[in-house]
Write a structure and sequence with these properties.
Elements: H1 3-22, E1 34-38, H2 42-47, E2 53-54, E3 57-58, H3 61-67, E4 72-77, H4 89-101, E5 105-110, H5 133-153, E6 160-163, H6 182-203, E7 208-214, H7 219-228, E8 236-240, H8 250-264, E9 267-272, H9 302-318, E10 323-327, E11 337-338, E12 341-342
Parallel strand pairs: 1-4, 1-10, 4-5, 5-6, 6-7, 7-8, 8-9
Antiparallel strand pairs: 2-3, 11-12
Helix pairs in contact: 5-6, 8-9
Family: Belongs to the glycosyl hydrolase 53 family.
EC number: 3.2.1.89
Pfam families: Glyco_hydro_53
Length: 375
């Protein structure tokens, strides 16, 4: 090859190589839309005699969730619930195993408590209650890592982890309307986050981290405080949205999702929601939801429940969010007793009917296609 042509080819090759190197990287693929349910009650309900049906045939709620288009199952974990063996580690391992066998992703919800932790209260486990802040930080970190290591050894590491449940109040002892010591609170949150990151690296599996706040009106103030305190390493903002306990309608929820996504650069999910399909009872335990908490335009009926979920999900998607999780679709009425009475306070807001535990039309919400509209 003549010298000039060789030089020109070399120059061209160099130009092409440098052009390729200078080309901007392709933008990352957007995260998928996660639709699913919290099935923390299923093992207990089945042990209490509940038989779930779909078109009159026996149905496994995990399989049913997947068959109808769901791709995620959420489960809560309590540290040492001496009043029940459900939602303790062994029960949670069984639940996660069932979910993975059905082809579902798993969101593991650490309550960091022996009992319910929620937007009103964050009780510390009995074993940690008297510890100093330094000791609580270490205990929370080590417990998180221990649980994830055990799940990894069982081949059941979750795809996502919640570091706390509805942590509106200060972790490990805080209550509603009490001021939060953000130096302490950030240390506790970051201890859980660090443990998840360490487990993910140690076991070679990506685990997304969620921080979770009850009701949309509380999201921006809480995350602003968390950001200022140095709580930064998370992937997902989870919001509980129940119209009965929120000041916001669906439009207001959408505005918060949009603002949070833009402000913090995280995914945003409605990780808890529910809607009543009836005002009937199957037991003497008072129902928590019903016509008194209905949203105009969404009747308390099976069709209204399904339409609420479809419109809620469309609102989430329209505003840049990418997850909706139904809370306790499996908490049907049985012969078993709880601290609140015999049966369930949620049977009229489950996704199975009251008399036969037949799957309701709400399950069809999972299989719809949702694309952004009006943006």
């Amino acid at each position: 090859m003549p010298l000039l042509r060789r030089a020109l080819c070399a120059s061209a090759s160099l130009f092409l190589a440098s052009s390729a190197m200078a080309a901007p990287p392709a933008p990352p693929a957007p995260p998928p839309l996660y639709l699913g349910a919290d099935l923390s009650f299923t093992n207990e309900m089945e042990a209490c005699g509940a038989k779930f049906l779909d078109h009159g045939k026996p149905a496994d709620p995990f399989v049913l969730l997947k068959q109808h288009g769901g791709n995620l199952m959420r489960v809560r974990l309590w540290n040492n619930p001496t009043w029940t063996h459900y939602s303790a580690y062994d029960d949670v391992l069984k639940t996660i195993t069932r979910a993975h066998a059905a082809g579902l992703n798993v969101l593991l919800d650490f309550h960091y408590s022996d009992d319910w932790a929620d937007g009103d209260k964050q009780p510390a486990p009995a074993a940690w209650a008297g510890l100093s802040t330094d000791a609580q930080v270490k205990a929370l970190h080590d417990y998180t890592r221990e649980v994830l290591d055990k799940l990894a050894a069982a081949g059941q590491l979750p795809e996502m982890v919640q570091v706390g449940n509805e942590t509106n109040a200060a972790m490990q002892g805080g209550a509603k309307d009490q001021p939060i010591d953000w130096v302490r609170n950030a240390r506790l949150l970051n201890a859980g986050i660090s443990a998840v990151r360490e487990a993910s690296k140690a076991h070679g599996k990506p685990i997304q981290i969620m921080l979770h706040i009850a009701q949309p009106e509380n999201v921006i103030p809480w995350f602003d405080d968390a950001t200022a305190a140095g709580v930064l390493d998370y992937d997902i903002i989870g919001i509980s949205y129940y119209s009965k306990w929120s000041k916001y309608n669906l439009s207001g929820l959408g505005k918060v999702i949009d603002a949070a996504h833009r402000r913090y650069g995280a995914q945003v999910w409605v990780v808890e929601t529910a809607y009543a399909f009836s005002d009937d009872h199957a037991d003497d335990t008072t129902n928590l939801l019903g016509s008194d908490s209905a949203i105009p335009g969404y009747p308390v009926s099976p069709q209204g429940q399904r339409r609420y979920l479809e419109d809620l999900t469309q609102t989430v998607v329209n505003n840049g969010g990418n997850g909706v999780v139904y809370w306790a679709p499996d908490w049907v009425s049985t012969k078993c007793k709880t601290r609140w009475g015999t049966g369930s306070s949620w049977e009229n807001a489950a996704m199975f009917d009251i008399k036969r535990h037949e799957a309701l039309p709400a399950f069809d919400w999972l299989g719809k296609t949702y694309t952004p509209q009006g943006k």
